[in-house]
Specification:
Elements (H helix, E strand, L loop, with lengths): L14 E4 L3 H11 L1 E7 L6 E6 L2 E5 L6 H14 L4 E10 L8 E9 L3 H6 L5 E3 L2 H13 L5 E7 L10 H8 L1 E5 L2 H11 L2 E11 L8 H6 L2 H11 L3
Parallel strand pairs: 1-4, 1-5, 5-10, 6-8, 8-9
Antiparallel strand pairs: 2-3, 3-4, 5-9, 6-7, 6-10
Helix pairs in contact: 2-6, 4-8
């Protein structure tokens, strides 16, 4: 048990898949896992541990934003000895990527002070685990799932006024925007753990298309399958 998680230590697997939405955890648990057990329900952040084929996996929601991801991923790494966390979420595209395209994050670039306040980390960018990313790439190749590898903008503000996203693309070579990966990567770096982020495009800043809330909750099966199959290699 930690400050924000009620689980017993033995109830959390060494590998965690981390959607933002608790409902997405429920969907994955029901559809893909066997021998499933609810291991956390504090603040409605319902988490599950179960088996995917031969691998024991925990599904734990991060909630929305860098602060929420920062809390849950830190406690999972630090208090529950989790080795690897793979974020599986959504992103808004700044480029010509289409709905349901998959992004594998190389570097997370942020406007947040999270790293500076956490541990005096002075850069506004941080990379994910090369080990995990290589496993994800190899699995995607084996399963014939197309992925787009690149940087993502991890913002502290959803309703950013006067957002010049084209300037961010030019300055940081980012494919799109989300709100959690920087905190996850920062915690992993601080605690000598492994973290990756796989994102499905749910909306676009170039086009008017977007996924519905139900599609965001249940329409990420390619992404989920890729993450689960990657876990078998860990």
């Amino acid at each position: 048990m930690s400050t924000h998680i009620e689980s017993n230590k033995e109830d959390i697997a060494k590998i965690v898949l981390m959607p933002g939405d608790p409902k997405r955890c429920e969907y994955i648990a029901r559809k893909y896992l066997s021998n499933t057990k609810i291991v956390n329900n504090v603040r409605g952040m319902t988490a599950y541990t179960g088996d995917y084929k031969s691998k024991r996996i925990t599904l734990f929601p991060s909630g929305m934003g860098i602060p929420s991801m920062g809390i849950y991923s830190y406690e999972l790494f630090k208090e529950y000895d989790v080795d690897s966390i793979i974020r599986i979420g959504t992103a808004g595209s700044y480029t010509a990527l289409k709905l349901k395209d998959i992004i594998l994050v190389t570097n997370s670039v942020t406007n947040s002070n999270y790293g500076r306040i956490l541990c005096n980390y002075q850069n506004n960018y941080i990379d994910g685990s090369n080990v995990l990313n290589t496993l994800i790439e190899n699995t995607a190749l084996e399963k014939n799932i197309k992925i787009n590898k690149g940087n993502i903008y991890s913002s502290d503000v959803f309703y950013e006024q006067n957002n010049d996203f084209k300037d961010k693309v030019t300055k940081y070579s980012v494919l799109g925007v989300e709100m959690e990966s920087f905190a996850l990567f920062m915690n992993a770096k601080l605690l000598n753990k492994k973290a990756a982020a796989m994102l499905m495009v749910s909306d676009s800043f170039l086009f008017t298309d977007n996924l519905s809330s139900i599609e965001r909750e249940q329409g990420l099966d390619n992404l989920i399958f890729l993450a689960l199959e990657t876990c078998l290699k860990l």
